[in-house]
Amino acid sequence: MPDWLLPLLVPMAAALAGALLMLAFRPRGGGGGDAVLLLAERMEALSQRLDTAVAAQSERMHRALAESADRTQDSARRIHERLAVIDAARANLESLSGRVTTLASILGNKQARGAFGEVQLRDMLADRLPTEGWAWQHTLANGTRCDALIRLPFPPGPIAIDSKFPLEAWQALRLAMDDTARTAALRRLATDIRRHVDDVATKYICPGETAEGALIFLPSEALHADLHAQHGALIAEAARRGVYLVSPGTLWAVLGAMRALMRDVRLKAEAQALRLGVARLAEEVGRLDRRVANLRRHHAESQADMDQIAITTQKILAAAARIEAVEMDPPGTARAAE
Q1: DSSP characters for 184-200?
Q2: How far is it, in rounded angstroms, from Cα 233 to Cα 213?
Q3: Residue 17 and residue 334: Cα distance in Å, rounded?
Q4: For the purposes of burial, counting CB atoms within 10 Å of the CB of 171, is it exposed (0-12), middle (13-18) or buried (19 or more)?
Q5: Phi/psi at 158 (nearest 5 deg)?
Q6: Residue 29 φ then ψ, to 5°
Q7: Global pTM?
Q8: Whose CA is closest to 251, among 132, 122, 130, 165?
Q9: Tens-binned pLDDT, residue by residue, of the chain (338 aa)
Q10: Cα–Cα distance, 119 to 281 (Å, whole number)
Q11: Are 121 and 217 in contact (CB under 8 A)?
Q12: CATH class of 105-263
């Protein structure tokens, strides 16, 4: 039974009990009808009160249920939103897991790893350098084909880049479970570094054709950091031989410096061309000045000739005027004189 119904039933039960008692003890005479009417009125009033209370309680319950339903719906909506976020995160994790697996398979395959390093190197060169500033898969005079050649002017000269660094020993070092495996991996890594540096120094550095140094591109920042931390002596030895190991980050900075150098060389070439053009222009201006002087001299001479012509014309006009002014004798006067 609900808690709100008991307070309503108790007065009703009391009223019914009182009515029954009145009916049981009422006199036998004619006053029983009034008592019954009074009881009926009280019952009617009690019924109305009970109906009103039940309606109010029903309204309160309806309102409470509606609010509870709204809260439940809002909670369900938030739960659905969180589930959607969780599903999206799960999808991202699955996608990332697939990419990590793909990257692991690429790094595990020597040919695929070399292709991955070449693609990364080529994208960086295409992004940082002008098209005429580098060549891909360039063949040197000794027959060696380097992955890329950066065409820098002398000095320092073109720089060759290699992108096929061996990673097997480094991977074995990262997966080593004990000191013995770690020591063996370190020894193997040192051997691989020394052998690869020797190959690059021998094949990629050609006096008179390339610069006195070459670059080895490492496609991993972690590998670059590990090599400098664990094999600093080998890195210094490679630098003394003119071979420098660069990561994507350091190569980005190096390419920026090379681009600035190419820009300076281009500006110097353009300035030299501009200087030669100005010199040719000055020569043409001198030639024009000489021709103008000649034209001025010719003009002066022409003016002098015109002045002489004008003087001669004036003399001719004067002579013509004198001739015209001469009076001729009449014919009869001449015969009379004879």
Answers
A1: HHHHHHHHHHHHHHHHH
A2: 18
A3: 197
A4: middle
A5: -60, 145
A6: -75, -155
A7: 0.49
A8: 122
A9: 555 555 555 556 656 655 555 555 555 554 556 666 776 677 777 777 777 877 787 788 888 888 888 888 888 888 888 888 888 887 777 776 655 554 455 455 555 455 557 888 888 888 888 888 888 888 888 888 888 898 888 878 898 998 887 777 777 777 777 888 888 888 888 888 888 888 888 888 888 888 888 998 888 788 788 888 888 888 888 888 888 988 888 888 888 888 888 888 788 888 888 888 888 888 888 888 888 888 888 888 888 888 888 888 888 888 888 887 775 555 555 444 44
A10: 49
A11: yes
A12: alpha beta
Identity of the residue numbered 284:
E
Question: Looking at this protein, which amino acid is placed at residue 69?
Answer: A
Q: Residue 85: what residue type?
A: V
Q: For residue 242, give both structure tokens.
A: 């003119």
Q: Compute the residue count for the chain.
A: 338
Instruction: DSSP letter for 326, please.
Output: P
Number of neighbours of residue 213 by Cβ within 10 angstroms: 18
In order, the DSSP letters of 132-185 are GGEEEEEEPTTS-EEEEEE-PPTTT--EEEE-----HHHHHHHT--SHHHHHHH
Measured over the CA atoms of residue 170, residue 171, residue 175 and residue 178, the dihedral's sign is negative
Rounded Cα distance between 332 and 335, Å, is 5
User: Is residue 116 within 8 Å of residue 219, measured between CB atoms?
Assistant: yes
Measured on CA atoms in the order 173, 174, 175, 180, is the torsion positive or negative? positive
Domain coordinates of the chain in residue numbers? 105-263
Element (H, E) at 246: strand 243-246
